[in-house]
Design brief:
Helix content is 44%, strand content 16%. The chain is of the alpha+beta class. The chain has one domain: Alpha-Beta Complex (Sufe protein. Chain: A). Strand 2 (92-94) and strand 3 (97-106) form a beta hairpin. It is globular, with a radius of gyration of 21 Å.
Length: 173
């Protein structure tokens, strides 16, 4: 009997430790190469579910003043890193309604996350979303990836958010 109690206690402690483990993934800027096209700006309204919204860059770098190709390539790389663009993730349908996020990226860094659609199953969904979405957004900006923890008590919201976020990141590559 004592052996069974000790075994169950040890198993529960190990499971609790495993579930609270938080890994620190590599940032997207270090893992992915710079995007080949330069775009900037934001949209005035939500874009179609799987569309990437971009606007042409306002100005080009002064690469023509340089006589060498390596300097012009470096100048082009700097203008790419500074360009802001928006990417809209696909709509993730959850048990409590749709979730869709839009990212603003500067180079490969996520600078802003906007939730375009959120779960809509009444006042309980509103309460859960008002608590969970700021936490998910904060974790996204810190992690710079979709490798974030779900919010306790908001499993479906978290699942939909992460699914749409991953879709947007896939489009940003």
């Amino acid at each position: 009997m004592l052996r069974a109690v000790l075994t169950l206690t040890g198993t529960a402690a190990g499971l609790a430790a495993l579930l609270t483990f938080k890994s620190h993934p590599a940032t997207i800027a270090a893992a992915a190469p710079a995007a080949p096209t330069v775009t900037s700006g934001a949209t005035s309204g939500p874009a179609p579910a799987s569309a990437t919204t971009t606007h042409p860059a306002a100005g080009k770098s002064a690469a023509g003043k340089s006589g060498t190709a390596s300097k012009s390539q470096a100048a082009a790389g700097n203008s790419q890193a500074a360009a802001a663009r928006t990417v809209t993730g696909t709509v993730a349908n959850t048990q409590y309604g749709p979730m869709q996020v839009q990212l603003t990226l500067t180079g490969q860094k996520i600078t802003k996350v906007t939730v375009l659609q959120r779960t809509n199953d009444g006042s309980e969904s509103d309460e859960i979303d008002s608590n969970a979405i700021p936490k998910l957004t904060s974790e996204t900006l810190a992690a710079q990836s979709a490798q974030i923890n779900a919010v306790s008590g908001a499993s479906y919201t978290s699942q939909g958010y992460i699914q749409s976020l991953q879709s947007a990141l896939d489009q940003a590559k």
